[in-house]
């Protein structure tokens, strides 16, 4: 296993045993990254992804710098910019649009680059999420599964031999995506609910992204795929993993569900933040050349 100076740019960077190692180490309480020189590049408007990291770094009094605008990538040579920040920082966290820029920074900076969130991938979120799904064999996805976090989660779950049942309108199916990552028959995509008598987990992300303004047409296609009391009647749901903002106007999760009754089943936003930090902490520990000597 070689984590030393290993970037985390997308969901294909980690092999199965590396992913399992991170998840195992995450369960232990280390705080390792306070000695590191950290830079956050925030190229895109972000509420939770960047702010959750900043809040934790501030809480532990960890020094960091943040580049919070786009002019560096528009007016400056990206290669020169990468070399400059590489001299100053050990770790670079990137939150932006372009995966190509991410790769250039990783190649020329000499620092370890970690993708907080890009248009195509959301590796930190997906790893922290699957740590809550690791003991469940069957996982259901409801609705539109084309967001970056859902795709990332599916890619990583595919490495762990989970059975995925995707309950989604056909308009959102992307066969080429699944052919690329699945070499077995452990994934089912269907417009009709498939019922299992085994305990399962329910996973969903927001149906509407932060920047979307016109979404009524989209909601009309997804309304039959919401989480409601009927679903609880048919499925033995052991855990619900749902993004908290999805409660908007009770369209995503039906108002007939008593949130307090199912409180023990839900994993909320606060736990997501804690899990993300533990994943990052585990990654930092594994990234050290002296890891196997110290621990």
From TrEMBL:
Keywords: Transferase
Cross-referenced SUPFAM superfamilies: Aspartate/ornithine carbamoyltransferase
GO molecular function list: amino acid binding; ornithine carbamoyltransferase activity
Keyword Zinc-finger: no
GO terms under biological process: citrulline biosynthetic process; L-arginine biosynthetic process via ornithine
Sequence ranges assigned to domain Aspartate/ornithine carbamoyltransferase Asp/Orn-binding in this UniProt record: 139-258
Keyword Transferase belongs to the record: yes
Domain of life: Bacteria
Domain Aspartate/ornithine carbamoyltransferase carbamoyl-P binding stretches: 34-131
Protein name: Ornithine carbamoyltransferase
Phylogenetic lineage: Bacteria, Pseudomonadati, Pseudomonadota, Gammaproteobacteria, Oceanospirillales
């Amino acid at each position: 296993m070689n984590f030393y100076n290993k970037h985390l740019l997308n969901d294909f960077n980690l092999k199965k045993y590396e992913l399992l190692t991170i998840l195992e180490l995450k369960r232990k309480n280390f705080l390792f990254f306070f000695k590191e020189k950290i830079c956050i590049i925030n190229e895109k408007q972000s509420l939770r992804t960047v702010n959750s990291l900043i809040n934790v770094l501030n809480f532990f009094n960890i020094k960091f710098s943040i580049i919070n605008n786009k002019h560096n990538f528009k007016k400056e040579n990206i290669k020169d910019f990468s070399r400059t920040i590489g001299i100053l920082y050990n770790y670079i966290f990137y939150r932006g649009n372009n995966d190509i820029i991410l790769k250039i920074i990783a190649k020329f900076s000499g620092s370890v680059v970690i993708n907080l969130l890009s248009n195509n991938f959301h590796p930190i979120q997906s790893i922290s999420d699957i740590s809550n799904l690791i003991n469940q064999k069957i996982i259901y996805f409801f609705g539109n599964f084309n967001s970056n976090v859902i795709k990332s989660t599916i890619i990583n779950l595919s490495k762990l031999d989970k059975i995925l049942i995707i309950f989604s309108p056909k308009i959102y199916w992307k066969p080429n995506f699944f052919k690329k990552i699945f070499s077995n028959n452990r994934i089912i995509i269907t417009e009709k609910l498939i019922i299992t008598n085994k305990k399962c987990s329910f996973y969903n992300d927001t149906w509407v992204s932060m920047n979307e303004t016109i979404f009524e047409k989209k909601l009309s296609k997804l309304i039959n795929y919401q989480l409601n009391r009927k679903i609880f009647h048919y499925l033995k749901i052991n855990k619900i993993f749902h993004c908290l903002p999805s409660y908007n106007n009770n369209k995503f999760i039906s108002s007939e569900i008593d949130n307090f009754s199912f409180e023990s089943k839900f994993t909320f936003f606060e736990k997501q933040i804690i899990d993300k930090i533990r994943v990052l902490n585990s990654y930092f520990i594994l990234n050290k050349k002296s890891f196997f000597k110290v621990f």
